Amino acid sequence: MKCIFSVIEATICGPGNYLDMDIGQCRSCPVGSYMTENQHAHTQCNPCLPGKHANNEGSEECTDCAPGLYSNQGASVCEVCPLGHFCPGGTDKLACPVGTMAPPMGLDWCDRCPQGSYSKGAAVVCDVCSAGHYCHGGGHR
Question: In terms of C-beta density within 10 A (0-12 exposed, 13-18 middle, 19 or more buried), how is residue 3 classed?
Fold first, then answer.
């Protein structure tokens, strides 16, 4: 045990790498994770935070998702924001609020419902105002 401990103590893995305890050697960080600097006996890489991704092995940092895209923790790619949601600056997907809609995928904003229509939130399209009601646009009818 002392010999293995000495090997681990002396092993320095460079950026983008970690120490694989099973083989006592450095390995590249898997996709979706990173290692920024040389670490003594660091046995795992850091997962990318939500809104970031690392699509290559051996990453030294995670890259921000572009507006209209999002990612969860440990992502290797950013995903297109779904219908009825918006993704500002690569953060988590957020449902469009009441009175707005996001008909195409991949938006970083929601459009306000036009006059004569409304939505209850997370809408792909705004509903037409019912007969006998007035809808000035947005979430009220």
Answer: exposed
What distance in Å separates the CA atoms of residue 65 and residue 61, rounded to the nearest whole number? Answer: 13
Superfamily classification of domain 1-79:
Tumor Necrosis Factor Receptor, subunit A, domain 2 (2.10.50.10)
Mean pLDDT of the chain: 87
Query: What is the pLDDT confidence band of residue 140, given thresholds at 50, 70 and 90?
Result: very low
**Pair 24, 8: CB distance under 8 Å:** yes
Tokens matching residue 57: 């092995």
Name the band, by pLDDT with cuts 50, 70 and 90, for residue 136.
confident
74 closest CA partner among 15, 31, 18 = 31
